[in-house]
Amino acid sequence: MSLQSALSLDVGPEAVSQVRACCSARYNLALLAFFGFFLLYALRVNLSVALVDMVEPNASLAKNTTFHVCPEHSSTINVPRNTTGKKYPWDADTQGWILGSFFYGYIITQIPGGYLASKIGGKLLLGFGIFGTSVFTLLTPLAADLGVGYLIAVRVLEGLGEGVTFPAMHSMWSSWAPPLERSKLLSISYAGAQMGTVVSLPLSGLICYYMNWVYVFYLFGTLGVLWFFFWMWLVSNKPETHKRISHAEREYILSSLKDQLSTQKSVPWRPILTSIPVWAIVVAHFSYNWTFYTLLTLLPTYMKEILRFNAEENGFLSALPYFGCWLCIILSGQIADHLRETQSFSTVYVRKCFTLIGMIGPAMFLVAAGFIGCNYELAVAFVTISTTLGGFCTSGYSINHLDIAPSYAGILLGITNSFATIPGMVGPVIAKVLTHNNTVGEWQTVFYIAASINVFGAIFFALFASGEVQDWAVSSYHFHRN
Known about the structure:
Blueprint: H1 3-8, H2 13-18, H3 25-54, H4 92-106, H5 110-120, H6 122-138, H7 140-146, H8 148-162, H9 165-176, H10 182-210, H11 214-234, H12 247-256, H13 269-273, H14 276-305, H15 311-341, H16 347-369, H17 376-389, H18 400-404, H19 409-434, H20 440-464
């Protein structure tokens, strides 16, 4: 941080010189959150890979016929495939409901999670949210064996647990993240979600191929339970209550946030719900998630049915786009704060530019991916570039809640993520309905829809977003510019 920036936050140069990033309490929080969201997304997406192996061959086709345009992709695997995993006769519609059921629970706890986090802190909510999801993941094989209704019920319960996690984390960062470090800290913590996807997809594919799909759920469920104990031991809701934070760091964080936090006990619901900047985030979040969830849940199916990769290759290639996204999230967080701190770019300018890049770029490459035929390398490259560019949104609309209303960031994220969960509920179902025959033309339609929604959301955010703390978000109604 520059001396000028430090003085503008009423923190002296002596304090800043002692407030290092390495081993600091705020960056330790970011690292623990990284592993938490790593497991959160591993628990969420492993079913996408395992489901391919859980379904009886050709069960997803029902009465329809798949018209294979592309020849089967050659494999170098010489190890015999394990075939001990139980298979279920679930057709395409059933699979769509199984994949989408998670979000029916997920949407319910978004706003309550944000509200509770603002009252009791995010530590317990985030911890028990991941713990509960881990326990139900361990029960997934039993539920599948009992019947599809039980499996859907377990996935709904997992969604209930995960629904509180993002609002809880946003609420914690409202007390922990200095304004000029928000992009860095939040990008580190939320990048865990992408890395969880990167590791979970190929590892789940390997487990399914060489072992049995049930171990996919046992492995990640167990790791989630172990993480819970470290989180409860090492984390505190606020700097004031942290036992191992240095005095200099505590004062630095509290001083940097003193004009941005509200002391109001009641939530200003009416101003929140009538705020145009809030609705700009809602529209952007909804639009981005339509593409994100469509690919997250159905990319393994696209790799298998259209590009015809086997299970092991499927897992690795499905994970490649999210590795690119993880890199982009980390780098864009550093770049965003650099532009705001040393280049004097306004917060709103950075948020809008990063959102436009992170939504229009992916839309272009996603549409292109539907028109390259059986060029395997180009298809994987386009999908990877599309998902990678989406990483810019983490330093765009994704943390804009903290810019406009730090004290209510958890509640705002609960609101925006409630709308943004709808694509996860209906997107996979619609995509499955549109791709009954798994033809290239059907998948082009899926990509067109996702790209169009993405572009609309980017333009809406660019027109109506704000980078300033809103007057209703501070008790003194002091209008503060970042």
